[in-house]
Write a structure and sequence with these properties.
Layout: E1 2-3, H1 13-32, H2 38-54, H3 60-67, H4 71-83, H5 85-99, H6 101-124, H7 141-145, H8 169-184, H9 195-206, H10 212-228, E2 231-232, H11 241-244, E3 247-250, E4 258-261, H12 262-273
Parallel strand pairs: 1-2
Antiparallel strand pairs: 3-4
Helix pairs in contact: 1-6, 4-9, 5-6, 5-8, 6-8, 6-10, 8-9, 8-10
Length: 274
């Protein structure tokens, strides 16, 4: 779905910062609500593991074996998992806010919907990650090689909910970052942004923090969010008209957005009266 509108203004910075901070607080608080559902989380983990085998999905261990060939590589993978997720998403939103306000509003709404639905699934379907499932026979790379954001005892971890594996918001946010940058830019190499979700998928599976199905469910939810929330047609902002201060953007039905000099717009009522 595509949104055809007049020029999109940049939201005010302080209210927008407070809104994003509130959404983040809800995200963190909502994830912690399922932290104590240990038995249910492990039962669901067994179901997901059996479902993947029934679907003949490749074992997560194949990816982990590739990473474990080098201690340096697995350390980098753990660091990527722990340190890139939030900063990359924040940088993505900040860049859109400053350079593409219309795309910023679209991306923020998509991420909010994806995260809200993800939290509902976290609450209704607590899931232990494969690194905690005995049947998976996988290494908890964070605990063994470091660094890790999780405590050694999941049930007693007060900093993070280790039973919120499905959907993988690590992957969902990374995929939205790539799609958002592709939509908001016009460079010939912009599709290389897809390397970010590809690397993220390799990391979350190889470190045994997520199942393949966690990423597949996140992809499906993101697809629904993208269908529901319209994408702006054009976004001439700080990099264009806002930087010059002499143009605005009009988008007519069925036509591409066209920059119109502001002085022409101001003279238009006078010509209409005559």
């Amino acid at each position: 779905m595509t949104q055809r509108t007049t020029a999109v203004g940049r939201p005010r910075a302080i209210p927008e910062l407070l809104l994003v901070a509130a959404l983040f607080a809800v995200y963190k608080g909502g994830r912690m609500l399922t932290a104590g559902h240990t038995d249910e989380a492990f039962r669901n983990a067994g179901r997901v593991w059996d479902a993947e085998r029934a679907l003949r999905l490749p074992g997560e261990g194949r990816v982990q074996d590739l990473l474990l060939h080098s201690e340096a590589v697995i350390h980098v993978a753990n660091t990527y998992y722990a340190a890139v997720h939030f900063p990359a998403t924040a940088a993505f939103l900040l860049w859109l806010y400053l350079r593409r306000p219309g795309h910023y509003l679209w991306a923020r709404r998509v991420l909010a919907v994806l995260t809200a639905v993800g939290l509902v699934l976290h609450l209704g379907f607590p899931l232990a990650p494969p690194r905690l499932l005995d049947a998976a026979h996988l290494v908890d790379t964070g605990q063994v090689y470091g660094p890790t954001v999780y405590g050694a005892a999941p049930a007693a971890d007060t900093m993070a909910n280790q039973f919120a594996a499905m959907p993988s918001l690590h992957f969902g946010w990374a995929l939205m970052l790539a799609l958002g940058m592709i939509a908001a830019t016009r460079g010939r190499w912009r599709h290389l942004w897809l390397l970010h979700p590809l690397l993220t998928l390799t990391v979350i599976v190889g470190t045994a923090n997520h199942y393949w199905l966690d990423a597949l469910v996140a992809t499906a939810l993101l697809g629904v969010a993208l269908l529901v929330i319209p994408r702006p047609v054009a976004d001439r902002t700080a990099a264009g008209s806002a930087g010059r201060g002499d143009e605005t953007v009009l988008a007519g039905a069925g036509r591409a957005a066209v920059p119109v000099p502001r002085d022409v717009l101001e003279r238009e009522p006078a010509r209409t009266r005559t």
